[in-house]
Amino acid sequence: MMAKVVAVTGNEAVAYALRQVNPDVSAAYPITPATDIMQRFTSYVSNGQVKTEMVLAESEHSAMSGCIGASAAGGRVMTATSSQGLALMWEELFIASGSRLPIVMALVNRALSAPLNIHGDHSDGMGARDCGWIQLWSENAQEAYDNTIQAFRIAEHMDVRLPVMVCLDGFIISHSIERMEYIDDDAVKNFVGAFKAVNPLLDIEHPVSYGPLILPDYYMEYRKAHAEVMAKVPGIVLDVAKDFEKIASRKYGLFEAYRLDDAEIGIVILNSAAGTSKDVIDSFREKGIKAGLLKPRLFRPFPYDEIGNELKHLKAVCVLDRADAFGGSYGPLFIDIAASLYPHKNGPVLSNKIYGLGGRDYLPEHAEYAINELVEIAKTGKVKTLKEYIGVRE
Amino acid sequence: MKLKGWKNVNPGAVCTEAGSALQFKTGSWRAYRPRWIEENCIQCLFCWAYCPDMAVNVKDGKMTGFNYDYCKGCGICALECPGKKGNKAIVMEEEGK
Predict the structure, then answer these.
(1) From CA A293, how far away is CA B73, in angstroms rounded?
(2) A360 lies in which domain range?
(3) Is B1 on the interface with A (CB under 8 A)?
(4) Does A347 share its domain with A316?
(5) What kind and span of H or E run contains A109?
(6) Do residues B40 and B83 touch, judged by C-beta distance below 8 A?
(7) Interchain contact, A101 vs B12, CB within 8 Å
(8) Is B97 near chain A, with CB under 8 Å?
(9) Per residue in A171-229, pLDDT tens?
(10) Is the dihedral of CA A312, A316, A321, A326 positive or negative?
(11) Contact A67, A25 (CB under 8 A)
C-alpha cells in the first residue's frame, strides 16, 4: 500500500481523484468555487494524463445534458458544479437519476443567490436533496478525495446505477490547503475497476431508447422501483467502504459517530463545521461533560434507522444546519434527524440552530454556545428556542 | 396487455425492444373519426403521405381504409383529400354519434 502525504486544497484533491479514475467523458461549465476542480482536470486532459473526452459546455444545463448523453451512450462520466450551477441543472438532475445513469458530480457547496454570494453554505445541496441522487458529504479534503473515489463504485454498482453527488464546503475546504494522503494510482484504478455499461446507446447491435413517455399507468411503478433501489444504497455504501479500507486504511460508515457511546448530549452537523465541533467537544469532555457528535456522510438516501438508533439514548440533541428551509420550518438536517428519532418515544429533546450561511464563520464559541445550552436542556428537559439563528447580528 | 408491477419494469425506463410503440395503442385519444368514402377516392395517397402517424392502410399501392388503433383523429387527411369533383373521400365524424 503506497500513500503519498501531500498539502493540497480540497479542489486539488478531488481533481487528483478524478485523474486517477480517468473517466471516459466529462462535460462541465465553470462556477466558483467548483471551477478550480475542472480547471485542474482540463490541464490533465491537455497534458495527456487522462484519456477523458472533455466537453466545454455553454451552461450547466448543457453540461449535465452532455453528461446524461455520454452516460447513456455507455461511458464513465463525471462533472463538478456549485450553487447556481446546480440550480441550472435542476431538471437534468431528475433525468439523470430517473434514467439510472451512474454520473459522479463534485458539488462544492455554495450559497444560493439572491443576494449574490460565492461562499460556502449547504443551500445548493439541500435544494437538490430529493432529486433521486445519492449524496455523500465530506468534512475535509481527505474525505472529499476518498468519497470521490468511492462514489464511482457506489454509482456503478449493478444493484444501484444511480448518480452520486460528492459534497464539500466551498472555500473552507475547496480552497484551503490541508495535509492529506493520496492513494497510489494503480490502487485507485484497481479499486474502481473497468466501467461496465448497461444498455449503452452506442451498442448498435442492441438498439435502445432512453427517455420514453411514461403515463399514469406506469409512472408510479418507476418511482417505486427508484425508492426500492435507494433502500439498497446504505448496504452497498458500507460494502464499498470496507473495500476502500483495504487500499487506504481509513474507515468510513454511513455517518461518523464521535464520542457518542457514553454521551448524554450530542451535536449533529455536516461537513467542515464538524471538525471545529469535535475540538470543542474534546474540551467539554475534559471538564467532565459527556458530549458527542454525529456527522452524516450518506445524506441521501438518509439512513433513518441507523441514525435514530445512534442518537436515541441521548438526553438532548442540537442539530446545526448550514441552510434554512424557509416557511417557518426547521433546517433540512433537523427535519431528517427529527424523523429518524420519531419511532423512539423516549428519545432526546431536540433543538435546531442555523449557522454559517453565505460563508459566515462557524467559530468554537458557536459550538460552545450550543453545548452549554444542551447541558441546560438535559437538566430541565425544556427547550427555550426550538429554532434560532446563531452568529447573526440583531 | 397485462400491466407489469414495479419489480418488473426496465431500470431507468429504457426501451430495449425495437418498435415497441406498436404495443401502445393510441386510438382512444380520438374525438373525431375519419370515414373513407371509397366512391370519391382517386387513390392519390395524399392521406397516406400527410398522416403524422401511420394510420392510413395501404395495400398494393392503394388506400384501403384507416387503422383506428393509432389514428388520433387530427383530420389532416380529410383536409388534404382532394376528393372527386368536389366530393371529399374522407370526412370527419364525431366519435360516439
Answers:
(1) 65
(2) 255-389
(3) no
(4) yes
(5) strand A104-109
(6) yes
(7) yes
(8) no
(9) 999 999 999 999 999 999 999 999 999 999 999 999 999 999 999 999 999 999 999 99
(10) positive
(11) yes
- For residue A54, the one-letter residue type is M
β-strand pairing of A316-321 with A265-268: parallel
The answer to whether B81 and B23 are in contact (CB under 8 A) is: no
Residue A14 lies in a domain: yes
Contact A98 B12 (CB under 8 A): yes
In degrees rounded to 5, what are phi and psi of residue A116?
-60, 130
Interface test with A, best of B4, B8, B14, B23 (most A CBs within 10 A): B14
**Hey, what CATH class is B26-94 in?**
alpha beta
**Cell (9 digits) for A78:** 463525471
pLDDT in tens, A259-285: 999 999 999 999 999 999 999 999 999
A136 domain residue, yes or no: yes
Q: Which of A71, A220, A222, A229 to mutate to test the interface with B (most CBs of B within 10 A)?
A: A222
Asked if A210 contacts A72 with a C-beta cutoff of 8 angstroms, the reply is yes
Q: Which of A229, A248, A267 is the last residue of a domain?
A: A248
